[in-house]
């Protein structure tokens, strides 16, 4: 077996942090892992340093687990104004976001908030901001 080559620490750290925050499920597993380490005797400060999270965040996750069990580690639904996108359009968007934008005639390789806003304006007459479309994509994807 060949020995492993060292990976530059900054590149590895950046990639792993991005992967740990890539999806709702990844964030849930990240929190679960942090709570397991605290339950095993590590301090919130140590776990926060290892995972590049604030010790206060780790502490909140531990308290959320103690109060609500595993459900406390899941992302909470955000309260705010209701979405202006009709439910039938949201159902179409779920299928749309699984496809490449090229399938709809766009040159981009991936959906972005700006592209989705342009698509919703052209196809459905909805005027949504780029940031709102980003949140919509994260929720529906």
How would you summarize what this structure contains?
60% of the residues lie in helices and 0% in strands. With 141 residues, the chain is an all-alpha fold.
Give the arrangement of secondary structure elements.
Blueprint (H helix, E strand, L loop, with lengths): L8 H12 L3 H16 L4 H8 L3 H14 L18 H11 L15 H12 L5 H11 L1
The Rg value, from CA coordinates, equals 20 Å
Shape: extended
The first-to-last residue Cα distance is 40 Å
The beta-strand count equals 0
Low-confidence stretches: none
Give the structural class.
mainly alpha
What sequence of helices (H) and strands (E) makes up the elements?
A: HHHHHHH
User: What profile does the largest beta sheet have?
Assistant: none
Residues in helix, %: 55-70%
The overall pLDDT average reads 85
Number of helical segments?
A: 7
Strand content: under 5%
Q: What is the number of independent domains?
A: 2
């Amino acid at each position: 077996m060949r020995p492993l080559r060292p990976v530059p620490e900054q590149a590895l750290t950046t990639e792993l942090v991005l992967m740990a925050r890539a999806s709702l499920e990844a964030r849930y597993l990240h929190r679960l892992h942090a709570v397991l380490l605290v339950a095993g005797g590590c301090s919130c400060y140590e776990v926060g340093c290892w995972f590049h999270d604030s010790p206060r965040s780790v502490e909140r996750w531990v308290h959320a687990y103690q109060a609500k069990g595993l459900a406390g580690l899941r992302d909470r639904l955000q309260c705010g104004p209701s979405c202006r996108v009709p439910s039938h359009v949201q159902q179409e968007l779920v299928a749309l976001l699984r496809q490449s934008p090229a399938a709809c005639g766009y040159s981009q390789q991936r959906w972005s908030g700006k592209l989705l806003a342009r698509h919703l304006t052209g196809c459905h007459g909805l005027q949504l901001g780029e940031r709102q479309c980003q949140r919509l994509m994260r929720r529906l994807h």
